[in-house]
Amino acid sequence: MTNDITRLSASDLGSALARKELSSVEATQAHLDRIAAVDGDLHAFLHVSTQEALATAADVDAKRAAGEELHPLAGVPIAVKDVVVTKGLPTTAGSKILENWVPPYDATLVERLKGAGLPILGKTNMDEFAMGSSTEHSAFGNTKNPWDLDRIPGGSGGGSAAAVAGFEAPLAIGTDTGGSIRQPGAVTGTVGVKPTYGGVSRYGLIAMASSLDQAGPVTRTVLDAALLHELIGGHDPHDSTSIDEPVPGVVAAARQGATGDLKGVRVGVVTELAGEGYQAGVSARFDESLEQLRALGAEIVEVSCPSFRYALDAYYLIMPAEASSNLAKFDGMRFGLRVEPAEGPVTAERVMGATRGAGFGDEVKRRVILGTYALSAGYYDAYYGSAQKVRTLIQRDFAAAFAKADVLVSPTAPTTAFKFGEKLDDPLAMYLNDVATIPANLAGVPGMSLPNGLSDDGLPVGFQILAPAKADDRMYRVGAALEAALESRWGGPLLNKAPELKTTELAR
Ligand code: GLN
Q: Would the keyword rRNA-binding be found if you checked this record's keyword annotation (predicted)?
């Protein structure tokens, strides 16, 4: 039974709870058991909050018994990326500099999860400060891909994606600055959504690059992503860039899409994000998905976004520039790690140097150096200024493309999951993973990755759908339609094809 519970989608689990076929305590315990059984291998979690999760579950069960009206996901457990602050639960952002730090408040999105009664199973592993595409930059060890334990689960949100793909959690929260929800989704066979910038509050996210960061859902189905998106989305006065408008009707759109009718929907294939540079199996699945969309009634058009080829370059100036400023608060004085110099005077500057030297990993140091250089007086216009101009050109390309197409599509990532160590010593090779996901962050538009099959190597492939800002509902409609068509071809969810994980004897 435990195994059956953990295989349910969040929406099915929510319905079963509403029908009182099982309790939230049982559902939560089933997931905690699964974590105990497989996380020794996967290492998706940095912290498991057993007591807190079971207490929330018991509370929801009591409310349900008392006949209270509850959210459709009430009682459905969730995992949260460790870059999101959680009151009373350790939050490290994958960094030694925050080891053992326990935040005094909840992020707005966590307040919303708690308000709706979703038990928080724990905090998931990630690349340090969300910098990476493989989770190998975590200060606390690698997370494994449930499809193949020798391979990366993507990054920076590899922990959230592996937890959902490994049936440790039906839902998770990720954050996406350049692809960290969508690329892990692609390589683990899960659904990942980066909402429109400003669609989900950033209050309580440990900032990497504030003009790019967005939190969003990591799930196994498009409908589950929509339910979670509606719950965590919406205006927050604590975030000055939060959109003060109702959340787009993403749940209704997902339900409409599932009926399989895409007549009149114009799907744009971005020339610059298709063709060369993708693994053969990734391109093959992409072409098949286009055929399926056409069969559902969509019109496929080709659009060109010439400035996209500079997106990666602009991102790797803007992101480090913002990160170098955001990370300045880790100074050994306010919170987290404090290291005093081994010898010599204990001045503020020397404590800062010793703390950052010991507390930040190589990738973080690399980006802080890059960012401070790009922002330095003599180079500001040449680097940061030019990158901002490219950003405007990318936004204009999107505007022109969305005049011709309702959604844009591409493969999510150039390859399937690579092996540990393969790209670790070559930062540029690592950065190239995000070539297709980064334009959306630079323009603030929403993006979804959805599993669309297996490559020749037997590993999952992702299909990316992009929509105009504040039209997130469009990608849910198209995503749900494609998902339904794919599942009827496969006879069920793609994750059913993943190898069974070895489970160790349960602690209980
Ligand atoms: N992989 C990208 C990077 O390293 C994106 C990270 C993210 O979205 N947080 O910057």
A: no
Residue nearest (by alpha carbon) to ligand 1 atom 4: 132
Active site annotation includes 156: yes
CA pair distance 75, 34, nearest whole angstrom: 17
* Secondary structure in 3-state letters for 424-465: CCCHHHHHHHHCCCHHHHHHCCCEEEEEEEECCCCCEEEEEE
Give me the half-sphere count of Cα atoms (radius 13 Å) on the Cβ side of residue 361.
22
Taking the C-alpha atoms of residue 69 and residue 60, their distance in angstroms, rounded to an integer, is: 11
- Closest atom of ligand 1 to CA, residue 183: 1
Report the separation in Å between the CA atom of 396 and the middle of ligand 1, taken as the mean of its atom positions. 23
Q: What is the pLDDT of residue 508?
A: 42
Residues 343/108, Cβ–Cβ less than 8 Å? no
- Ligand 1 interacting residues, C-beta cut-off 6 A: 130-133, 155-156, 176-180, 208, 319, 434
* pTM of the shown model: 0.98
Compute the distance from residue 129 Cα to the ligand 1 centre, in Å: 9
Pocket probe for ligand 1: among 183, 428, 432, 434, the residue whose CB has the most ligand atoms within 8 Å is 434
Give the integer Cα–Cα distance in Å for 315 and 277. Answer: 19
Coil, helix or strand for 406? coil
Catalytic residue among 9, 24, 49, 180: 180
How many helical (H) and strand (E) elements, i.e. helices and strands, does the chain have? 17, 11
Full 3-state SS string of 64-104: HHCCCCCCCCCCCCEEEECCECECCECCCCCCHHHCCCCCC
Cα of 313 to ligand 1 centre, how many Å? 13
DSSP letter assigned to residue 472: H
Which 3 state secondary structure label does DSSP give 261? coil
Return the number of other C-beta atoms located less than 10 Å from residue 21's C-beta.
10
Which among 269, 271, 266, 282 is positioned nearest to 307, based on CA atoms? 271
* Residue 180 annotated as catalytic: yes
**224 phi, psi to nearest 5 deg:** -60, -40
DSSP codes, 483-504: HHHHHHHHTS-GGGGSPPPP-P
- Which residue of the set 81, 96, 144, 470 is catalytic? 81
Give residue-wise pLDDT tens across range 376-403.
Answer: 989 999 999 999 999 999 999 999 999 9
Q: In this predicted model, what pLDDT tens digit does every residue of 152-196 receive, in sequence order?
A: 999 999 999 999 999 999 999 999 999 999 999 999 999 999 999
DSSP-assigned beta bridge partners for residue 175: 215
Q: What residue ranges define each of the domains in the chain, with the CATH number in brackets?
A: 2-308+392-503 (3.90.1300.10)
